[in-house]
Write a structure and sequence with these properties.
This protein has helices at residues 8-16, 22-34, 36-50, 53-56, 63-76, 81-111, 249-252, 262-272, 301-312; strands at residues 118-122, 128-131, 137-140, 145-149, 157-162, 164-168, 177-181, 184-188, 192-197, 204-210, 212-217, 220-225, 228-233, 236-241, 254-261, 278-282, 291-297, 315-319, 322-326. It is α+β, with helices and mostly antiparallel strands. Helix 1 crosses helix 2 (22-34) and helix 2 (22-34) crosses helix 3. The radius of gyration is 30 Å and the shape is elongated. The N and C termini lie far apart (69 Å).
């Protein structure tokens, strides 16, 4: 049974400040030996401490000698007992205050991008591209965020992701590339895929163009190969086949349709153009009966709508963020 290791950070801090007792050191060694991740955490804290010059000086303080000196002075100088105790308390505070600050600082180091071991890359109104420490390459769509370990140490290459991006993952069979995205997860060894998360609905979509990907959430899991795509939505994963390349239109600028029905076309337009947030149909015609074959390269929304009206013989308008299809 796993023990409840209480105040382990305090024991680590005592070790760093040379103020740990033998009993406490034994407890610390037990904790380190229980799980490899505990030993890794300990090593990380020691590494951060050793590179913090302001805190390093506190390792040179001999608390036992200070205590003996104060006791000696108290014994021979009774009238100043209160003053000596206050000085001793100040010496203890001088050690414990930076130690507490160190623990808080280490928490920031562990979790805050840009402060410690994590690095963040964000895009706003334009696409962006970043090469990770393992030489993987990620192209991000607008309004996306990628958080990664600066050194990618350990047995995984851990990534946290929001938005949409195309990943070219460097091959490393010994160190899986793991992405946390919304409530879903992706694990690969070396491959290429497009990943998209809708932060509002929680929907996560992945389309694999090369290699093999493990896609999971909770106990649900799908293994995806090149040509496969999967959608996590409402707590369920659905595996499908990629039927066109329009999921990459944000990156390539190309939108193409081959015998696609108007319903599929409308969905692709909504996905490509951020200004289109809904589709409204005001016709009794079955949109799946209307087939369209055409191709656009870096088009404006109006250019797409003008050509689609010719192909479909329907009125297609963009009003207040809605794509309205009518007779």
């Amino acid at each position: 049974m796993e023990k409840n290791w209480k105040d382990i950070d305090i024991l680590i801090t005592k070790h760093l400040t040379n103020s740990i007792s033998q009993e406490e050191r034994h407890t610390l060694d037990q904790w380190k030996g229980e799980d490899p991740s505990n030993a890794l955490r300990f090593d990380e804290m020691v590494n951060v401490w050793n590179h913090s010059e302001g805190l390093q000086a506190f390792q040179n303080i001999d608390m036992q000698l200070d205590l003996a000196t104060v006791k000696k002075r108290i014994h021979f100088e009774q009238p100043n007992k209160k003053i000596r105790r206050m000085k001793f308390a100040s010496r203890i505070a001088a050690i414990m205050i930076p130690a507490v600050m160190f623990v808080a600082g280490f928490a920031l180091y562990q979790s805050t991008p840009g402060f410690g071991k994590w690095q963040a890359f964000n895009t706003q109104t334009q696409n962006g591209e970043v090469t990770l420490p393992d030489h993987s390459n990620v192209t991000l769509n607008q309004n996306s965020r990628l958080v990664f370990l600066k050194k990618m140490q350990g047995d995984k290459r851990l990534i946290k992701f929001q938005g949409e991006g195309y990943f070219k993952v460097a091959k490393n069979p010994d160190k899986p590339f793991v992405i946390e995205v919304g409530k879903a997860n992706v694990e690969v060894l070396g491959t290429e895929f497009n990943l998209e998360e809708n932060a509002v609905t929680g929907r996560v979509c992945i389309a694999v163009t090369e290699g093999k990907v493990r896609f999971w959430s909770g106990k649900q899991e799908e293994i995806l190969l090149a040509g496969d795509r999967a959608v996590f939505e409402n707590g369920t994963i659905h595996k499908k086949t990629i039927d066109n390349d329009n999921f990459l239109s944000w990156k390539t600028g190309v939108i193409s349709f081959t015998n696609a029905n108007l319903e599929e076309v409308s969905a692709a337009i909504q996905d490509h153009f951020d200004d289109v947030n809904a589709v409204q149909v005001k016709t009794n015609t079955d949109l799946t009966d209307l087939k369209i074959t055409t191709k656009f390269i870096n088009p404006s929304l109006q250019e797409v709508l003008d050509e689609l009206m010719i192909h479909s013989d329907k009125k297609i308008e963009w009003i207040d963020g809605k794509l309205i299809i009518s007779d």
